[in-house]
Design a protein that fits this description.
Double Stranded RNA Binding Domain
Length: about 120
């Protein structure tokens, strides 16, 4: 198993080894799709001040790649579900980026020269 550069931080909660292992396992899928990922930052937050006791766990992820960074977050009442949704959003962003690169490569532009080109005699 290759070690990737993943920075995990927690707000209002202690990060256990189990939580860190889940984040590494889920993020490994992203690193397999795109090899140009520089770093991934994950911020896990517990918000005890929610009045309805819904969406207490927030997972925020930032993928640093060449070009624009990809940022996603998910809020649910289960920490592991929040992590899963956040990774799925980042995965969709990477797949869209890859698809747009392929479309851009296939798009050929016709060069139209407005002047008449003389014929050689």
């Amino acid at each position: 198993m290759k070690q990737y550069d993943i920075i995990i931080s927690g707000l209002n909660m202690d990060l256990t080894d189990a939580i860190k292992n889940v984040v590494h396992a889920k993020a490994e899928k992203l690193f397999e799709h795109e090899d140009k990922i520089v770093r991934m930052r994950v911020e896990l937050e517990f918000d005890p001040h929610q009045s309805t006791h819904e969406n207490e766990f927030i997972a925020k992820g930032q993928l640093e790649v060449r070009g624009n960074d990809h940022i996603a977050h998910a809020e649910t009442n289960d920490l592991y579900k929040s992590i899963d949704e956040m990774v799925n959003k980042l995965d969709r962003m990477l797949r869209r980026r890859s698809r747009l690169k392929k479309v851009k490569r296939k798009d050929t532009h016709i060069i139209d020269i407005p002047a008449e080109i003389p014929k050689a005699v």
